[in-house]
Amino acid sequence: MARSLGMSTTSASSAYTIGAEQGFHATELTRGPWDPSHQHAGPPTALVCRAIEHAAAAHGLAHLARLTGNLLRPVPLGEVRVEVHADYVGRNAAHYSARLLDQGKELARFTALVQREVEDPLPPGTPGHPLPMAPRPPQSSEAVTMPFAGARASYADLVENRIASGRFFAGPACVWFRLRHPLVAGETPSPYQRVAVAADSGNGISAALDFATHSFVNCDLTINLLRRPRGEWVCLDARTALGGNGCGLAQSVLYDEAGLIGHATQSLAVRSRR
User: Fold this and answer.
1) Mean pLDDT value across the chain
2) 8 pLDDT band (50/70/90 cuts)?
3) Architecture of domain 16-117+134-272
């Protein structure tokens, strides 16, 4: 069922502020549902996405086709830093690697593929096109807040949600996301950063197990995008599959208001809280 739309009180106006020595300070709007001292993985993934976009732009490459993150450790609230390395830069594509760091400790490791965009319209009648649309647009979807929203500000206050189908944390669900606040203070987030903030939520919105009895934290995140996202809204049509062996997989089909944009997957570590 939908929850009330009351928001937590917070003085934070962005997920991150720019800190000293090219670092970033994570505000309470990045706080995740698993531990009050840890960030949700969506905002730091978007922070890495931002750094890779900046590196690729120098070569005229603008389409983030894939971003994969290996989440090595919980990301604490506080200062983080991003390092980006160009593994290969060609005429039409480039491969990047990146690290998310806290005081020199590696928290997550990323790889990305960035492509050059060209105008090349599809021939009429191309099979599978026009691309499919989300079940319902955000304007006709029910406004809700995440079940872990509470007195303490968190990721649930960073994003606005509307449900196109299903229910929060009760199996397959299709949910729209929109940022209420900038990712970095003083900046307008790119379409790719908006997707990265949302895409890590697939395992949560489609949870098949109760948060009170189980944890199902993702160990990685891969986002594949076939085109540049448009607008502020990002939709996740998500479902979780469990193997009964302490492992699972969350898969999300990604949309914007114009239709399909790609997919996201997360490998899960499933544990009973007993």
Assistant:
1) 94
2) low
3) Beta Barrel (2.40)
